[in-house]
Design the sequence.
C-alpha cells in the first residue's frame, strides 16, 4: 500500500513541477515577445520618422524643380517670342524689298525680251485691271527711265525690224509704236511746252511696253495710260481695241474704234478691226461693210481681206470667201490671221487635213488670239472624234482666256458627242452664264439628242431674253 501511495506522490510532484516549468517557460516567452515587439516598435518609429523626413525633403526638391522648370520655360518663351518678332520683322522688311526688287527685274526682263511672258506666268490668272493700272502709275520717273533705257538699248531693234519692212507694216492689225523726235530749239521752253513734251515721251514709253506685251489685259491698261497722256492717240485706241477683241469683248473694242475713226475717218486699220468686232458679234452685214471700207482706203491691207473671208465663210458663201482669203495670203504669205481664217474655211468644207495644216501654221506665226485659235483646233479634233485632244486644246485655250464663253460651249458639245448628259448640261450652263449665244448653234449635230427637249428649251430661254434685252 505504501508503495502505491509513494508512486502517486511522485507522479503528482512531477506533474506540479512540470506545470511550474511550463509557466516559467511561458513567462520567459512572453518577455521575449514583449522585448521583440518593443524593438520592432522602435524600429517602426524610426522608419516612420525617416520617411517623414524624406517626404519633406522630396517635397522641397519637387517644389524647387517645379520653380526651376517654370523659370526655364519662361526664359524659353521670352527668347522664342523675341526671335519670332525679329524674324517677322526681317521677313516683312526684307521680304518687301525682295518682292519689289524682283518685280522690277521682271518688268525690265520682259521689256528686253519682247513681252512679259514670265510676268504673265507670275500674275496671269489673279491680276486685275485695277492692280495693273495702280502698279504702272506708281512707278517713279527714275524707274520708268530705267525701263525705257533698257528698251532703247535692247528692245528697239525689234520695232525697227518692223519699220524696215516698208509696205509690210500696213498689213498688221496693230499700229506700230511711234518714234517721237524733237527739234532742239535755242529758245527757252515754257512750262506748258515742257509738260506737253514730257507727256509725249511718257506716252511713247507706255506704247512701247504695251506693244511688246503678250497679255491683252496688260496691253489695255498701258494703252489707257497712253491715251491719258495723249488723248488724240488713235493708234493706242486701235491697239486697245485689238486687245479687247482678243479677250472676246467686241463691244468695248467698237467703242475705242469709233473714237479713232471720228478723229481720222480714213484710218483703214480701225475699220478692219471694227469689222472683226462685228464678226465676233455675228453682225455680218456691218462686218462686211467695214472690211470693204478698209480695203477701199488701203487695197494692200491683208487683214481686211482675211476678216471679210472669214465672215463670208460663216455665211456659207464659200466661193467668195476663197477669193478673199487667197488675196490675203497673196499679199502676206506669213500672215497668221490669213492662215487662221483659211483653216476655218477648209474646216467648214470638211477638208480637215488642210484645216489642221493652216491652224498649225497660224500657231507657228504667233496668231495673237490664242483662246480663239485653240478653241477652233478643239472643234476640229471634235469633228475628227479625237475627244481627248479636243479637251486638251480647250484646257490650253483657258490658260489664255478662261472667260471666253465659246470654250465651255465647245466643251459641252464634246461631252454631248461622248454621250455624257450631265457634263453636257453643266458646261452649257457655264457657257450661257459667260454670254455664249448657244441658241445660234442649235444646228450643230451635237444638239441632235437635246434640240427638242423641254429641259434644253427651259435652260436657253432666260439667257436668250437677257441677251436680246
Sequence:
Amino acid at each position: 500500500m505504501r508503495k502505491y501511495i509513494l508512486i502517486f506522490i511522485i507522479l503528482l510532484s512531477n506533474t506540479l513541477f512540470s506545470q511550474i516549468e511550463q509557466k516559467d517557460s511561458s513567462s520567459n516567452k512572453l518577455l521575449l515577445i514583449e522585448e521583440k515587439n518593443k524593438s520592432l516598435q522602435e524600429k517602426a518609429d524610426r522608419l516612420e520618422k525617416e520617411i517623414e523626413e524624406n517626404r519633406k525633403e522630396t517635397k522641397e526638391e519637387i517644389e524647387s524643380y517645379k520653380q526651376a522648370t517654370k523659370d526655364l520655360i519662361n526664359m524659353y518663351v521670352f527668347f522664342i517670342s523675341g526671335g519670332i518678332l525679329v524674324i517677322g520683322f526681317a521677313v516683312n522688311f526684307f521680304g518687301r524689298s525682295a518682292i519689289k526688287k524682283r518685280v522690277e527685274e521682271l518688268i525690265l526682263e520682259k521689256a528686253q525680251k519682247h513681252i512679259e511672258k514670265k510676268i504673265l506666268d507670275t500674275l496671269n490668272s489673279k491680276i486685275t485691271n485695277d492692280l495693273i493700272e495702280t502698279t504702272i502709275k506708281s512707278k517713279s520717273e527714275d524707274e520708268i527711265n530705267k525701263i525705257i533705257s533698257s528698251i532703247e538699248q535692247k528692245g528697239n531693234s525689234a520695232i525697227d525690224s518692223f519699220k524696215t519692212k516698208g509696205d509690210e507694216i500696213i498689213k498688221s492689225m496693230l499700229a506700230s509704236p511711234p518714234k517721237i523726235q524733237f527739234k532742239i530749239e535755242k529758245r527757252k521752253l515754257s512750262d506748258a511746252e515742257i509738260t506737253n513734251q514730257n507727256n509725249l515721251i511718257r506716252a511713247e514709253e507706255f506704247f512701247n511696253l504695251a506693244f511688246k506685251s503678250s497679255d491683252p489685259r496688260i496691253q489695255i491698261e498701258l494703252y489707257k495710260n497712253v491715251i491719258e497722256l495723249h488723248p488724240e492717240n488713235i493708234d493706242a485706241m486701235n491697239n486697245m481695241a485689238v486687245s479687247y477683241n482678243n479677250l472676246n469683248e467686241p463691244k468695248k473694242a467698237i467703242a475705242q474704234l469709233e473714237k479713232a475713226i471720228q478723229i481720222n475717218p480714213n484710218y483703214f486699220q480701225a475699220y478692219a478691226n471694227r469689222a472683226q468686232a462685228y464678226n465676233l458679234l455675228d453682225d455680218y452685214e456691218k462686218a462686211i461693210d467695214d472690211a470693204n471700207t478698209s480695203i477701199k482706203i488701203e487695197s494692200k491691207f491683208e487683214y481686211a481681206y482675211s476678216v471679210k473671208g472669214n465672215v463670208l465663210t460663216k455665211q456659207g458663201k464659200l466661193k467668195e470667201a476663197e477669193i478673199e482669203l487667197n488675196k490675203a495670203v497673196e499679199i502676206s504669205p506669213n500672215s497668221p490671221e490669213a492662215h487662221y481664217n483659211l483653216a476655218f474655211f477648209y474646216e467648214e468644207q470638211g477638208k480637215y487635213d488642210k484645216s489642221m495644216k493652216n491652224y498649225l501654221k497660224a500657231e507657228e506665226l504667233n496668231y495673237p488670239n490664242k483662246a480663239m485659235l485653240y478653241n477652233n483646233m478643239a472643234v476640229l479634233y471634235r469633228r475628227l472624234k479625237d475627244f481627248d485632244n479636243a479637251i486638251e486644246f480647250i484646257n490650253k485655250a483657258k490658260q489664255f482666256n478662261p472667260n471666253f464663253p465659246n470654250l465651255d460651249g465647245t466643251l459641252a458639245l464634246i461631252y454631248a458627242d461622248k454621250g455624257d448628259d450631265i457634263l453636257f448640261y453643266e458646261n452649257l450652263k457655264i457657257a450661257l452664264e459667260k454670254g455664249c449665244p448657244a441658241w445660234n448653234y442649235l444646228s450643230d449635230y451635237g444638239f441632235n439628242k437635246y434640240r427638242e427637249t423641254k429641259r434644253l428649251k427651259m435652260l436657253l430661254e432666260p439667257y436668250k431674253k437677257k441677251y436680246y434685252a
